[in-house]
Each structure stands twice: as C-alpha cells, then as structure tokens.
Amino acid sequence: MQGVKEKALELLASGKAQRVLGWKTGEFFYDLTPGVFESAEEVEREFEYGVFAGANLSKYCIAESKKDGVTAVFLKPCDAYSFVQLLKEYKVKREKFYIVGVQCDGMCDMEKIRAAGISGATAVSEDGDTLKISTIYGEETMKKSDALLLKCKTCKSKKLVIFDELLGEQGEDCPESHRFDEVERLERLSPEERFSFWRGELSRCIRCNACRNVCPACTCETCVFDNHNLGTDNKAAASDFEENFFHIIRAFHVTSRCTDCGECSRVCPQHIPLHLLNRKFIKDTNELYGAYQAGADLESRPPLMDFRKDDCEPSVVYERGGAKG
Amino acid sequence: MKKLALKELESLFAAIAAQQTLYLPQDDAAGQAQFAAWKEGAARSRRLNTARSAKDLFFPQVENLAGFKREGKSIEIFETREDVRPFTVFGVRACDARSFEILDKVFLKAPVDTFYASRREMGTVITLACTKPDETCFCRSFGIDPANPAGDVSCWMDEETLYWQANTAKGETLTSELPMLEDGGEEAVKAQQEKLHVILEKLPLAQLDLSKVGAGETEALFNRPEWKSLSESCLGCGTCTFVCPTCQCYDVQEFNTGKTVRRFRCWDSCMYSDFTKMSAGQPRPTQLERFRQRFMHKLVYFPDNNDGQFGCVGCGRCLQKCPIHMNIVKVIKTMGGGDDAK
Amino acid sequence: MRNDPLIPKLAVVTDIRVDTPDVKTFRVVGLSGKKPFEHIPGQCAMLSVPGVGEALFSITSSPTEEAFVEFSIKKCGCVTNWLHDMEPGQEITIRGPYGNGFPVDTAFAGKDLLFIAGGIGLAPLHSVINYCRYYRSRYGKIDIVYGSRSMEDLVDYPEIENVWCKEDGINVHLTIDREQPEWSGHVGFVPNYVKELGFTTDKTVVMCGPPIMIKFTLAGLMELGFAREQVYTTMELKMKCALGKCGRCNIGNKYVCKDGPVFRFDQLDELPDEY
C-alpha cells in the first residue's frame, strides 16, 4: 500500500491530528515497531509501512485516548474490528482519533521466511506474488502466500469497518478463508486425541504473557492471573495443568468479544496456535447463538453479554455430545 | 582433535545417551528447535539456534526449593529437590556457551546457588560452531567467536564430518568413553573457521558500536529522553527475558495444596509491573522504568559489577522474538552506537 | 535437607509484644532454644510462614542480646497480617542475616551520634541504639529524635521512657504529629523538630522513616550545615532472595539486599534516582 507515510505527513501538517500512531522503521526490513510520531521530522526519519506492518495498533489507542488532542491512527481491516470492539467497551474515545483505514492484502511473517530455511536476510522486494529476498548468502525467492502471517492466511474480512478516510479500496468479507477448517479438524478428533493435542501445544508455553498483553480484548486493569490479593496470581506453571488453564480461561473471557485478529498467535514466541482456542469459541457462539462477528458494528450486543428468551439452553452443550463438543 | 563421519553421528549420540541424558536441539511440533532429550532415531534440528536458550538446562523455569507442612504451631520442612544426574548437552552455540559464564557470575558467586551449581557440575557442554549465522547475530560484538565456541567439548560440522575438540577434564573424560572418534580434522576445521570469519564481517550488525554503553555509563544514559520513545510500545510481556540466555531474575512463590506447601522459584521478568511492587510503594511505576532497568542492567550495571563484561551475548533471540520488534540492538544504536545511529 | 541459601531454618516465636495498634515485636529463637544467628545492627532477615509467604524484616534487637533476635513489624500486607494474628509458640522459618549493617565499629566509633526516626523507622535504629548503649564508652553523646503520628504509635515507648530517657549522655527528643490531651511533650513533624533542636554539625546522623520524612529531614540537616557524608539511612525495596541474585532490589548497580540496606547519602547521590 502506497501513500501511508505521505498521509501521516499530511495529517500532521494540516493539523487534523496532533500525533500519528503508526510503525517505526527497524534495523532490518521486517522489524517494524509500533510508535507515535509527533512531528514531520520524526515521520520523515522513521515512519515505515509495508508488508511487515503486521502489528495491530488498536490496543495502543487505549493509551492514546488519554492524551489531549487527536491521534491519527492507521488501521488495517482486522485492526479496525478491534478498534470498534474497544469503542463498544468504552476503552477508546471515537473523537480522539482520526482513523485512516488502510487496504490490506496480507502481512508477512519473518518467522515463516526463516522456517523456510532462509537466513541472513537483508532486503526484500515484492514481484507480483513472489518475495525476492536478498541475504548475505545470496538471493532467495518465496511465494508471498507462503510467507503470510497465519492470521492473514485465514483472513476473515478485508472490509474496513470504521474509518474517517480510506487508503486504497474498501474490501469484502472473506467467506472462503477456511478459518474454521483447523477447528473442525480438531473437533473430529476423539476427546483423548484432542486433549493430547492441546496438552502438547500448551506444554510449550513459557508464560511470557505476550498473548495476553497484545490482545485488544484483554484490557482488565489487573488481570486475574496477576492478582495477588485474590491469590489467583501465578507467574509460572506450579503444576503442569496451570498453563492450560491460563489459556483456556483467557479464551473464555474474551469469547464473543474476540474479533479474531490473530495477534495472540502472531506474538507467541513458542508458536502455540492460540487463535484456535478463540476460533473454537467463535464457531460455537455462531452455532449456538447465531452468526456473530465481534467488532463488526457498534450496535449489536455480544451474545455472551446479551440475554434473549430464545437463547439456547445450557443443556445443548451436553446434547451435542462428546464427538463434536 | 578428533573426528567422526556424520553417518556415525547416531552411534555417538547413542553412546553418550547410554551413560546419561543427552540433550540436543530437535524440532518441536511447531518446527522450532528446542533442547530435548535424545532418543534413538531423533533428528537433530537444522535450525541455527534453539527458540529457548540453553540456560533452561541449568536454570529451569520452575524449580522446587523445599516443601513445608504446617500443623498447629509446628512446621515441618522437607526435601523436594531431585538429585541432578549427570547430563550432556550437544549443539550449544558459542553465544549460549558464553551465557553460562555470565550466569556463573551471578549464581556461583558467594553465597553459591547450589541448585544451579549442581547442574553446572553435572552437565557437560558440547558446543557446535556456527556455519551460517543469521542477520540477527551479533555475538562478535561481545568478543565471542562462533567459529571457536567454548564448552567442555567444541565441535564443528561440515557436510560429511563432525570434528571434536575436548577443552576441559570433563570433556576429556567424555572423549575417552567414545571410541568411535578418530584423530584428525585440524585442517578442515581451520578452513571452516576462516570461511566463517569472512561471513561474520558481512553480517549487518558486525559494526555494532558498544562504546557509548558499558561500565560507568549510568550517569550518561539513565536520564536520556530516548527511553520514552523506546519503551512506549513495549507490551510489558516477558518474551525477551524468557528467551534471553542471560536473564536470570527469579521470583520465589508457593503452591499450597492445602496439606503441604511447595516453595519454588520461577523465572521472573523486570518487564512485569509486580517485579518491584511492594505494599509500601512502587519504585518503577511505568513501563519506561522497567524497560530501562532491563537494558541498563545488561549494558551498564552488570558490566559495572563484572569487570566490564556485558550481560548480553548477541544471540539475537530478542531481535527475532519481541512481539513489537524492540530490542537491545535498537537500544544500543539509539544510545549512540552503530553506524546509523539515530 | 540439603543446604542452600534459599532454604530457611525453623525457628519459634517465643514472645509477642504489642507496641502500637499496628506494630508488634516478635521474639524469635532457633529450635535449639538458641539465637538463630549472629548479626550486625542494621541487618535484616527473611521470615516466612509457609503457605503465606516470605518477607524481609530488619532486626530490631541488638547483637548484644545473647538469647534471641527480635523484629518490630508493622501490619501492612499478607505476611505481616498473619504474623500479627498468631500466638507465641508458633514456629516460623528464618534465614539471614542479610545486608551490610551500620558501621558501628568503624565509622561510628568515637562519634557523637544523632538518631532520627519516624514511625516504624525506629525498628532498624533500635538495634544500633541498644548496641551503642551496651558499648557506651565507645561513642560520644547520643541524641535520639523520634516521632510518630500519635503517642500510641510510638514503638517501644516503655523502653524509651524507662531506659533510654534515664541514661546519662543520651538525650531523647520525642514528638507526635498532633496534640493529644495526655501528651505533654513536643508536637510537630520530625523534620521541623530537628531544625528547631538545631544540632551541632559534628554528629554522625542515622536516619530511618517514611520517604517524605527522610526527604525533608535531610534538607533540614543540610540547612543546619551537615554534609551528606555524615548521614546514614537504610533502604527498603522488594526482595525475594536477599542474596543479590533474584534481581529486583537494585538501585543502579547496587543491590539493596547485599550492598545495602545501609547507605550514606553521598553514596545514594551517586546512584540513579529510582527509589
């Protein structure tokens, strides 16, 4: 997407925004860091946007909301869902932001490039669907689709659900994203197989809290897992079951508020597919309460924060039986 | 120097594993390398380095200290420590090997941490020279030569052969128990080392300038305004600290089963808000102070207390793993080092 | 049980004295009936009740007490609440002593000493004061300025009134924050009282109390002409190991548990402002 940096400069110059929330250039081509820019000089020097701007900026808007004046923020489609959800939860103030919606065709993941055996990468360029990667060991190529972040491979929607201004084209929902395929595969496993799958995956957890801290739906002032006064704080797995509970309880807590932005899996240093827990809950919620997309609009109530007489009975969970549930 | 045809490597691993647990980097279910106990048929990972560092084998994330039973007014204290059996770890890179030296300076300094000490005593470290460093590697900046890694035994590997050099008494003992090793290999290793040294010069971080950080720089660095912008997007997670081979801060916690209490220590992170939080106050109230602490510790305080040695080995894990790509290199460069200082 | 610096010893609380509405003094001996360890005034120890937690406390008793160690502890958190609720005869765990302590046999020797304490801040000074009283001839004149919110909040008031106040060469200056009918002594905050008393600047000062008291008293002392090199204090930060290893109690390159808790203000000046 072209013109993002230019837009940042324009918004600062016109006074439409007092600061810009965007991405700062890194040491390499892929290590962009979310950052706040207050002057044109800073933008000129450090602003960068590209296929490695995967970080969702919406959670930073909570802090920006507390500042005076207007912050211009660049939101990709999945980030915009998070922003709307935060608006619904009164965590951000709409009038504090000038939202530039940015068309997105998927963001790349350096970990995927490394996993493909490409090391010593120093530069990248796009040539159609191909990434040309220069390394200190020579030139490499990789299909962009193979380098996409997991969350982008199964993108739910390219539609920008909120913006003041649009860069690029408005997108559409992606019903063919197959985002529930992996959940369905797990549902087809026997309970024992599924249990052992999750025990295996979660056993890798090092309890760094990156998934929780990055999650736009995790906005508690003090997380229950940090609350010493309640006696529920735990910093490490005192028993080998505790990590499982951390993730399961977290997934429960964000159910019907999770927009499926995929940040949890993006940031996990141990590559645990945490988004699958959330997607399972999204899929269940869709099946039990009707299709629902958190963050899609400002009006609807999340199914688990709403009560209707025709809500399914709790017993439905049992009725569905073990094979599916 | 000794050598062994790579096709015999399995027999070498088997011979070591027959005596003691052998850990070596293997790909996990997500395709990342991790140190794991070798079993027959287990494949050695081809990745440059493990996602978690080798410190885990000497300073595990969770470790029981003691058990207690309280009844009425009396307390019983009981042993929960398991005997550390001799073990060997193969495939430690030069950066991680150096991290042990740094951890030793914390844990083996009086009063000695006997939990760590027993693992150091029982563990034999076999290092493996790098051949294809990543762009995130900067061990050279700390005087580490990845072509000549430390350890009880140093190894090199090419397409066909493993080369083996015992460095310590422990390494000699292990070598003497491995009859499949043959003499020779000096020339091949020398050639490989020269080749790697050429590559090291080409690494993007080869010229990282550490002259603005280090012992005695507290006054110059502590109040620098750049800490604000460096730390502003930090998520306050513990990823950098937990994958770091030299981060060693820990917490002591208890697990109360209702019948007995297990006191354990676990990794802690200076990035967490509760790290310094007391009932009486909080000396590091925002992420700025916590972030600053982590880097000041590695780049100034540790060198202050350890003859100038940095608390970083340039393994690059934090560069690869930080969710928002903030890391020690960006800090060093912002503070005035490097060719493109900002 | 194998030894490790992190593994505590068992001890028993033989006596609990109520000092103020929120401070109690706990007398601790080892299971053998003897003092659990020898210490230097100003040092600390880790006390714990398994299942509740472990915390660091300064040792209130003087090393010259042969039979026990004592801790004056204010009720302010998990561990302290539990300690306050227990009864004599209760076993606890103890490890230590930790820290550098006050230079009672070096820098303090032969000096006139001025102790300034606020509230529970008397706890660590109590140990030094009684040590100096025991070896009275080694020190010059002793002045003690001690203030609290109210009369009831003065820790160890009977000992102050009946022992310290009656000894030659020791001047005790007590103050409380607000007037009370039964109080005939000075009323006012410690920093102001110190200035009013106007000490000669040849004294070595030992100070402990809440941060705000420290800040203003120090400023007052500077006005009186004291040098920062003459003023000692003792720090408190969160600690888990007390061995200089767990990594959280540092101020710059110094660990409070190991390099402190006692610092001179000129030493603190050299450390970054993060406490």
- Please give the radius of gyration of chain B in angstroms: 22 Å
What is the H-and-E element order of chain A? HEEHHEHEHEEEHHEHHHHHHH
Widest sheet of chain A: strand order?
2-1-3-4-8
Helical region count of chain A? 14
Largest sheet of chain A: 5 strands, mixed
**What characterizes the major β-sheet of chain B?**
8 strands, mixed
What is Rg of chain A?
21 Å
Q: How many strands of chain A? A: 8
Query: What share of the residues of chain B does DSSP label as strand, in percent?
Result: 15-25%
User: Mean pLDDT of chain B, rounded to whole units?
Assistant: 95
Which regions of chain A contain 5 or more consecutive residues with pLDDT less than 50?
A: none
SS element count, helices of chain B = 11
Q: Biggest protein-protein interface?
A: A-B, 52 and 57 residues
- % residues in beta strands of chain A: 5-15%
Taken together, the total number of domains of chain A comes to 3
Strand order of the largest sheet of chain B: 3-2-6-7-8-9-1-10
Give a written overview of the molecule:
The complex is a heterotrimer of chains A (about 325), B (about 350) and C (about 280). Chain A has helices spanning about 5-15, 40-45, 60-65, 75-90, 110-115, 145, 150-155, 180-190, 190-200, 210-215, 240-255, 265, 275-290, 315-320, and strands at about 20-25, 35, 70-75, 95-100, 120-125, 130-135, 140-145, 165. By secondary structure, chain A is an alpha/beta fold. Chain A folds into three domains: about 1-105 and about 155-175, no CATH class; about 110-145, no CATH class; about 180-325, no CATH class. The N and C termini of chain A lie far apart (about 40 Å). Chain B is of the alpha+beta class and about 350 residues long. Chain B has a domain at about 1-50 and about 80-200. In chain B, about 30% of the residues lie in helices and about 20% in strands. Chain B contains eleven helices and twelve strands. The model of chain B is unreliable at about 340 (pLDDT under 50). Chain C has two domains: about 10-100, Elongation Factor Tu (Ef-tu), domain 3 (Beta Barrel); about 115-235, Rossmann fold (3-Layer(aba) Sandwich), CATH 3.40.50. In chain C, strand 3 and strand 4 form a beta hairpin. The radius of gyration of chain C is 18 Å and the shape is globular. Chain C starts with 8 loop residues before the first strand and ends in a 6-residue tail after the last helix. The relative contact order of chain C is 0.14. The chains are: A alpha/beta (about 325), B alpha+beta (about 350), C alpha/beta (about 280).
